[in-house]
Design a protein that fits this description.
Layout (H helix, E strand, L loop, with lengths): L2 E5 L5 E5 L4 H10 L6 E5 L5 H12 L3 E5 L2 E5 L6 E2 L1 H6 L7 H8 L1 E5 L12 H9 L3 E5 L2 E5 L7 E3 L8 H11 L5 E5 L5 H12 L3 E3 L5 E5 L8 E3 L4 H13 L3 E5 L7 H9 L3 E5 L2 E5 L8 E3 L11 H8 L4 E6 L8 H8 L3 E5 L2 E6 L7 E3 L3 H13 L3 E5 L2 H4 L5 H7 L3 E5 L3
Parallel strand pairs: 2-15, 3-14, 6-7, 10-11, 18-19, 22-23
Antiparallel strand pairs: 1-23, 1-24, 3-5, 4-5, 7-9, 8-9, 11-13, 12-13, 15-17, 16-17, 19-21, 20-21
Helix pairs in contact: 1-2, 1-7, 4-6, 5-6, 6-7, 8-10, 8-12, 10-12, 11-12
This protein binds ligand EPZ.
Length: about 425
């Protein structure tokens, strides 16, 4: 298993290119199942989650090729059986359910397990498929969905923590080939949903309202191939912005979309971080005296849960008390124990982390547990005195393309150790 050996204390300086968004490309790859034609996806990040989704689509019979940042997919002859071992390993692959049901009127997809951040139920996904007329059962660890035909319907997809991103994606994709009009109420508003809708419309779908809580899909007979460039990854951009602020450096994030990052940028400005953007990108400049603040994660356009762990690290450097409250997932504080090992002063009070700063972090060996927690540990290593060894960085490789290379280009001392 690979680790990162980080020598902290160097302010990050320079420019870095933001990669395409993992959480946009995964459902867009699944959407290619809706047509026999070839689809070409540009600006796709080179990530293990992306190659994994490629393997899932290949196991269904699609032809998938990734050359650099371009993925070509042709699903001319496919079966509806999502391999248990494969789908179970990556939750994101649940978004093959909607396309398979729409294309084949039959889908068997393994029930994705929970993960360290929560139970990750899919009741809303199943509610959407049933609303469209499918008979859905859970048998031997598989979701088995069958339908004679799919019929447009008005559905409410809000759950206990608000909208569901991939549930909205599944419902939208299934509805593209349903007969009649589907209206999704309490739809997720994430930019990744808008990007998926844009790709589906390029394939000949008729979707309006993506990005708002009400999405209307008018079913069509069939979809054709399309070419699409994926939006930049707002979570990677937020992670690097926080790393720049935490190391009191100055970094320009080329290709970042500030209009996708208002909640994060608003918090950084509240803390005193300098943020500016122009055609060249988004420039973030750290300051000596940070202000504490409170953060609560919410559905988009609120503060993203995928940036909660990284922001927690920055808040350890602000004098005073900050409170971070996680409202989307039930256990997304796996990073806290490891941050304590580095010298942070954080106590957990139910859904909130109470952070006392500033804390002088000192390097140690820490263990990554999930994608965004490991990103937080890397940010902590960049500011800790001495060396930090972040183990099990395969978690990172799921969602950050060559992060150590990007950080080294910005002046950080980060080495990937192949054995440790
Ligand atoms: C997407 O996951 C992202 N993953 C997650 O990013 C992100 O954290 C999450 O949205 C929230 O923004 C991808 O897009 C591949 P949800 P998703 O359904 O769609 C509850 C990362 O680090 N819920 O929006 O699986 C659920 O338990 C990953 O890149 C139900 O109750 O998340 C959670 O509390 C982590 N029933 C809330 O909704 C359902 O049927 C939001 O989950 C579905 C979800």
């Amino acid at each position: 298993m690979h680790s990162f050996l980080i020598k902290g204390g160097t302010p990050l300086h320079g420019e870095v290119e933001i990669s395409g968004a993992k959480n946009a490309v995964l459902p867009i790859m699944a959407a290619a199942l809706l047509t026999r034609d070839e689809c070409v996806i540009h600006n796709a990040p080179v990530l293990s989650d992306v190659s994994f989704m490629g393997r899932v689509l290949t196991s269904l019979g699609a032809k998938v090729r990734q050359r650099g940042h371009t993925i070509t997919i042709q699903a001319d002859r496919i079966n509806g059986h999502g391999d248990y071992e494969l789908v179970r390993k990556m939750r994101g692959s649940i978004c093959i359910l909607g396309p398979l049901l729409a294309r084949l009127k039959h889908a068997e997809v393994s029930f994705p397990g929970g993960c360290v951040i929560g139970a990750r139920p899919i009741d809303l996904h199943l509610k959407a498929m049933r609303a469209l007329g499918a008979n859905v059962k859970v048998e031997a660890g598989y979701v088995v969905a069958k339908a004679r035909r799919l019929e447009g319907v008005r559905m409410f997809l809000g759950g206990k923590a608000g909208p569901t991103v991939l549930g909205t994606a599944n419902a939208m994709m299934a509805a593209t080939l349903a007969e009649g009009v589907t209206v999704i109420e309490s739809a997720a508003c994430e930019p990744e949903i808008v990007d998926l809708a844009n790709f589906l419309n390029a394939m000949g779908a008729r979707i309006e309202g993506a990005g708002s809580p009400t999405i209307t899909i008018t079913g069509v007979k069939e979809l054709h191939g399309a070419e699409h460039a994926v939006i930049p990854d707002r979570i990677e951009a937020a992670t690097l912005a926080i790393a720049a602020a935490a190391t009191r450096g100055e970094v320009t994030l080329k290709g970042a979309r500030p209009d996708h990052m208002h909640a994060v940028l608003d918090k950084l400005v509240t803390m005193g971080v300098k943020v500016d953007w122009d055609a060249n990108g988004l420039t973030v400049k750290g300051v000596r005296d940070l202000q504490p603040t409170d953060v609560t994660t919410q559905p988009y356009a609120g503060f993203p849960t995928d940036v909660q762990a990284q922001m927690t690290v920055l808040l350890t450097q602000a004098p005073g008390v900050s409170i971070v409250t996680e409202r989307i997932f039930e256990s997304r504080f796996m990073h806290i124990g490891e941050l304590l090992r580095l010298g942070a002063d954080i106590t957990l009070e139910g859904p909130s982390a109470v952070i006392k700063g500033p804390a002088r972090l000192s390097g140690a060996a820490v263990m990554a547990s999930d994608l965004r927690a490991s990103a937080a540990l890397v940010v902590a290593g960049l500011i800790a005195r001495g060396e930090t060894l972040v183990k099990r960085v395969y978690h990172l490789d799921r969602g950050y393309e060559k992060l150590e290379v990007k950080l080294r280009r910005l002046g950080a001392s980060v080495q990937r150790l192949k054995r440790s």
